[in-house]
């Protein structure tokens, strides 16, 4: 896959999106790197363990979040060597990325989406308790029980 374009693979019957993700993965695993020794050892271990493409894509998803020099390959090597189920490795990877500063925890707040086809979205992120309190307050204000909940809540806003 590292030598073929995604369009060549797509012409052989593979979905273009899948082909692009595979070529991106191949570029990460076999392309130029700042840690060639770790790259060689990790790729050899992945081949020896017979890791699936899905597993390697998951490893890459987490590794590309780290921007410090060499950090991504150290994480790749650690996850490839990690013994466990796919779900265990996924959970461990999330924890390690957070520890290394690659992911930030969700921030509380309100986001307003852009207008798409005349509709706009509002998103609220807060603690479970505060969202549950807001939900109960809105449910208590619904006057027409015959309407579906979504439509009734929309009508509360005066629309």
User: Number of DSSP strands?
Assistant: 2
The main sheet comes to: 2 strands, antiparallel
What is the strand arrangement across the widest sheet?
Answer: 1-2
How many whole angstroms does the radius of gyration measure?
23 Å
The fraction of residues assigned to DSSP E strands is 5-15%
Helix-and-strand structural type: mainly alpha
Poorly predicted runs are none
Task: Give the helix/strand layout.
Blueprint: H1 6-11, H2 16-30, H3 36-49, H4 53-63, H5 71-81, H6 86-99, E1 109-112, E2 122-125, H7 128-141, H8 149-156
Antiparallel strand pairs: 1-2
Note the main attributes of this structure.
159 residues, mainly alpha, 2 domains, 8 helices, 2 strands, elongated
Question: Can you describe what's shown?
Answer:
By secondary structure, the protein is mostly helical. Helix 2 packs across helix 4, helix 4 runs antiparallel to helix 5 and helix 4 runs parallel beside helix 6. Helices cover 58% and strands 5% of the residues. The radius of gyration is 23 Å and the shape is elongated. The chain has eight helices and two strands. The model has no long low-confidence stretch (mean pLDDT 85). It starts with 5 loop residues before the first helix and ends with a helix. It folds into two domains: 68 residues; 48 residues, no CATH class. A two-stranded antiparallel ribbon has the order 1-2.
